[in-house]
């Protein structure tokens, strides 16, 4: 039996003390405060040198040409710790994904229109970071891939589901989901605080994370990544944590 709705825009809330957005409209109108509050101050001098070294390597590989801004990679937020929502535990960690048949599951419960549109833009085989949110230390723990493109999210029609939507009709469903499959764990946990340190440095020197949606649209549980953003974050798994 599939797990109840366990991946959703609630996963975008990093601070448990902050009230959860109850519906998509509320979430969109709530100020973006969440994961910034969880982030530590960037370590002095730790990010710029890392970005410059990475940039030299990428320029060597590509002849210095800047990649076009297209979205072929994603970041998916989910909660690794138990939390009841309308009597249903919405916990779903990467270990829970690994325990599923064929290490595959549907990514249901998204009730934000922009996040839904990102789901609908996903293509077969594209990869995404699995991001633990709304926990003591948020961050990236693994990589998944899209194994089924967007189709109607059945939980919108289930009156027992926390994200039942009485206004959605089966002939014209409002909400979509995709199927994802576990690819691998990242070589190490990449915490939000470390990603933020690079983001702040890149805002100053024009690095690839300068516009990363993790910091410009923090509340979205489904976020697109440019090729440069994905590659740079992935390169962090090879570095020793600061």
Automatic annotation (TrEMBL):
Pfam family, one: EVE
Xref: InterPro entries: 5hmC_binding, EVE_domain, PUA-like_sf, THYN1-like_EVE
Protein's name according to its UniProt entry: Thymocyte nuclear protein 1
Extent of Basic and acidic residues compositional bias: 10-28, 56-66
Location(s), subcellular: Nucleus
Keywords: Nucleus, Phosphoprotein
Annotated spans, Disordered: 1-66
